[in-house]
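Encode chain A's predicted structure.
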Amino acid sequence: MDSPFSHELQMAIRAVQSAAKISQWVLSSDDKGTVEKDDLSLVTIADFAIQALLTSTVHGIFPDDKFVGEESAAELRDNPPLLNRVWELLLRLQDDEARSLCKLPRSPEEMCEMIDKCGFGEPGGSESGRIWGA
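Encoded structure for chain A:
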């Protein structure tokens, strides 16, 4: 592929493939790890893990880019068992080929930072002009 965005596309495809694995793991489990948000919508442990994975991977390659996403890590910080479940999902990728394809957070704290980089649904300015949705 000869495109000015081929590097971005290849990275995004790898990250989405890993995110799909996380979704499949949670979908096949009996407990989806759901939490009810203030607007009464549900968020699962997969939602948190995928947002952290996508943001961490893109940020690792394009550190000047900005992000927009739906989740905040506040619930994880207030709920250590939930934080641990999300972290364990990401750790499962370490034994997977995704580890070489994606940049995973190095700690639960960094995982929360990556989730919060998404600006609580409000994108900020970007030096590169790119804003990624996670």
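The radius of gyration is 15 Å.
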